[in-house]
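We read letters as residues; the fold follows as tokens. A sample entry reads:
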Amino acid sequence: MPRFLVVDDERNIRFLIERLLADESTKIDSFVSAEEALEAFFKNKEDYDLIITDIKLPGKSGLELIREIRKEAIDIPVLIISAYVKPEIISELFKFENVDYLSKPFTKEELISKIKKLLEKPKETFDRLLREANEYIKNGDLNRAEKLIRQMFKFAPSSPIPHYLMYELLKRRGNEELALRHLNAAKALEPNKEKVEKDEK
């Protein structure tokens, strides 16, 4: 079940979002301020799939909230919902990856459409990076491949795939010791095949 973090100092907006998403099988944690939301997020960051936030909040703004999360190289999708945002703020927002904007008032259809688009984007980006990194490794362009693999680690830190790619890349560079570390890390992250086989029996 997807878990969303919602930040808005208007109680009716928080309730509206919860009501509109009630049929979407989501778990929602709501907060009034960016400070509360950040504290909860950094305690449970692996559990959250999306952040929905207003820009104007008591204390830190929604923009500052995004900055603090991105500073930690966390690419969680963020949907900004706000009644009015200055063009320069919009311009600043779209400098970040995986951020979209929805103006108040909004319909259920608009909200769900924006959320679906944001949730699909990281997978699309990861798949694209995987294709391109494989191509660069095949062609021997290891520096470019490495940059893409490092981005993949940010998108999917628990996936074995970037480790396998890094193993191939380091092997080509002749760094056997570090290559083996990545191979072992990849194997450790693989699902337990023996357990799956037992369950099937």
The CA atoms of residues 33 and 59 lie 7 Å apart. Residues 108-139 form the longest helix (32 residues).
